[in-house]
Amino acid sequence: MSIQYFLPQRLSSWCMRKLTRIQTPWFKNLFIKVFSKLYDINWQESAVKKPEDFKTFNEFFTRPLENGARPIHDAPLVSPADGKIAACGNLEDTQFIRAKGHDFTVESLIADPELAQIFKDGSFATVYLSPRDYHRVHMPATGKLLRTIHIPGKLYSVSLKTAGQIPTLFAENERYVSVFDTEYGKMIVILVGAINVSSMETVWAGEITPPYGKVLAYQHYEDGMTLEKGAEMGRFNMGSTAIVLLEKNDRVALNPELKEAAPVQMGGALYNLCNLSQD
Questions:
Q1: pLDDT in tens, 200-217
Q2: Rounded to two decimals, what is the model's pTM?
Q3: Nearest 5°: CA angle at 202, between 197 and 206?
Q4: Which of 19, 82, 137, 255 matches a 20 to 30 Å C-alpha distance to 236?
């Protein structure tokens, strides 16, 4: 049995939140420098170049990039984040998503049986963000926000190793489901919480956690904002996972170059048009 089941998840995440928001200069600067060396952070692409110019470690962790650091591919849908592909593929007739050889349903992931039916035979891509990655999440395609679902849950680690130890990891962790209407059909982007992910944010709701959810929270948007492809939609204050679901669509297909554990960058091709060859 994984040690993940016994860790004090919320206490650990609360402590990490406090640590990453300390503004004492010597502590904050040392924290950033040690982390940067440990994870080989690429300072060249950061819009802010020095540890001293960040107010807190969290501000560094969610740092913006230089303009042009992540060009947006002309593919119909692009990766929402930097990271590695944890899993991707077509949803089966039974709506199961495969994660490290284990199955779980779309319904269990998004906590809405009616909504889950829309994505029957659709497709998905799961991007794991490691601590060294850029931690803002962007729109895979231009979409109008229709609704959100905040689902309470555990805070297991979402590393690729842990995904193989906990069969229904993404359906157990706390998560925030955002539903969009796009020219390619309904699209969902899911932010998955994890241990030491001290909070998640979106551009329309601000900080979602903490407080951590205790009950399902549904929000409908009659006049929801439209976010352009490549626009920031949210961020993780520490690392986690983003999942994209797309309803069945004959016009687009997952980029065949995407394989499990393959590195991706925000803005890279996630889906291709079916009648076009890959660049």
A1: 889 999 988 655 556 688
A2: 0.86
A3: 90
A4: 255
The two three-digit tokens of residue 52, written as one number:
């001293």
Tens digits of residue pLDDT in 19-39: 888 999 999 999 999 999 999
- The alpha carbons of the chain give a radius of gyration, in whole angstroms, of 18
Any domain includes 72? no
Q: What is the C-alpha separation between 115 and 113, in angstroms, rounded?
A: 6
Q: Taken in order 43, 191, 128, 35, is the CA torsion positive or negative?
A: positive
Q: Are residues 92 and 136 in the same domain?
A: yes
The overall longest dimension of the chain from CA atoms, in Å, is: 56
Question: CA-CA distance, 164 to 275, in Å (whole number)?
Answer: 35
165-198 CB burial, b ≥16 within 10 A, e <16:
bbeebbbbbbbbbbbbebebbbbbbbbbbbbbbb
Q: State whether 223 and 260 are in the same domain.
A: yes
Which residues are identified as catalytic?
82, 138, 240
Return the amino acid letter for 84: K
